[in-house]
Amino acid sequence: MSRFFSKKYQNLKAYTPGEQPRDMQYIKLNTNESPYPPSPSVLPSVEAEAEKLALYSDPECTALVSEAAALFGIERSEILMTNGSDEILNFAFMAFCDADHPIVFPDITYGFYPVFAQLGGIPYETIPLKEDFTIDVNDYIGIGKNIVIANPNAPTGLALTLDEIEKIVASNPENIVVIDEAYVDFGAQSAVGLTKKYENLLVTQTFSKSRSMAGARLGFGIACRALIADLCTVKYSTNPYNVNRMTMAAGTAALRENAYYMENCKKIEQTRAYTKKALEEMGFFVTDSKANFLFAKSDRISGETLYRELKKRGVLVRHFSAERICEYNRITVGTREQMDVFLDRTREILSEMQ
After folding, report:
1. How many CA atoms lie within 13 A of 198 on its CB side?
2. I need a surface site. Which of 75, 88, 311, 332 has the fewest CB within 10 A?
3. CA atoms of 55 and 249, how far apart (whole Å)
């Protein structure tokens, strides 16, 4: 770092995004992107907006917000569109957390949470997952601190029930609870409906996973009007034109064709079950994922070795070095054809280990 870098960030550990190598053609099963293209009207909608790039985008995202509000059964004042769900999460940390309002989250979860906390100088605590990687709801009941939980969790894919989420929210009425639903469309229960009942609940989602728009960078948060107003204050104090014209058009078109994406989610769920069964037949332990990825380990090969051997063979998966999960790999669920290649390569590697 340079001598000009602020001392307050000297110990900041930045988030590490999934690798994007260019040295060969890979089957990318490492960043949880959708294997399916956007719906038919997205591309022409984007092209039409490209002609207007000389003009600022609508800071209120009027058309996009209207479509989303109709789909989720909420008021326009109860949703905020952002540059990916990472931005709405960062806004939440900025708006609701400080030295007097710390935040807690699981020890194994989305890696950006501690980064947001460190970036904002926010005290935070991690609560260990149970031995089976599930969240113990009792650890969060009435703790009197802000909470963020990814549901389904990452990288485990395990999900809480709606009743469990409500217990956490209801027992912490003086604190904000953020439920990060980046993967909710692949088999978990959404807490969006609970935002009508609890003023301390913020639910965040993204277009990156189930709606095939990871490259467009679009996310959103749903909460009561007052919480959204708080988040808007942060938005308009940092980046009022945070969603660009083309992304806005893409998102609006995608919401109008929601059935297309939900059908793709069903395909991914079916492929996930198929791949899980095949891995278990090879002796892998695989968590009961409700996301568009699997979390798996084998006693026959280390997680890092499998990751490296698959990469040599043109298949990328995500490996984590944290002690509790270093023997696991997170495997994005692609098409059936992509998963067959992954499974074949894995069988080859295991046979060579004998």
Report:
1. 23
2. 75
3. 14
pLDDT at 24 over 90: no
Question: How is residue 324 annotated by DSSP?
Answer: G
Q: Is 20's pLDDT higher than 90?
A: no
SS3 of residue 128 by DSSP: coil
Residue type, 210: S
35-50 pLDDT per residue, tens = 999 999 999 999 999 9
The residue type found at 351 is S
- The pLDDT value recorded for residue 35 is 98
| Per-residue confidence (pLDDT) for residue 59, from 0 to 100 | 98
**How far is it, in rounded angstroms, from Cα 16 to Cα 36?**
25
Q: How many helices (H) and strands (E) does the chain have?
A: 10, 12
Task: State the amino acid at position 221 in one-letter form.
Answer: G
- Residue 125 carries which side chain, given as an amino acid letter? E
What is the distance, to the nearest Å, from the Cα of residue 119 to the centroid of all Cα atoms in its chain? 19
- Overall pTM surpassing 0.85 (yes/no): yes
- Look at strands 124-127 and 219-222 and give their pairing: unpaired
Is residue 354 scored above 80 in pLDDT?
A: no
Q: Which positions ≥6 away from 44 have C-beta within 8 Å?
A: none
Q: Which domains does the chain have, with CATH numbers?
A: 17-37+259-352 (3.90.1150.10), 42-256 (3.40.640.10)
Give a three-class secondary structure readout of 241-288. Answer: CCCCHHHHHHHHHHHHCHHHHHHHHHHHHHHHHHHHHHHHHCCCEECC
Tokens coding 294: 């699997």
Task: Identify the pLDDT of residue 23.
Answer: 82
Amino acid code (one letter) for 303 = G
pLDDT of residue 209 exceeding 80, the answer is: yes
Span between the terminal Cα atoms of the chain, in Å: 46
pLDDT of residue 21: 84
Residue of 72, 122, 65 whose CA lies nearest to 93 = 122
Quote the distance between the C-alpha of residue 51 and its chain's center: 31
How confident is the model over 267-301, as pLDDT tens digits? Answer: 999 999 999 999 999 999 999 999 999 999 999 99
Q: Is 50 helix (H, G, I), strand (E, B) or coil?
A: helix
Structure tokens at 112: 């950006």
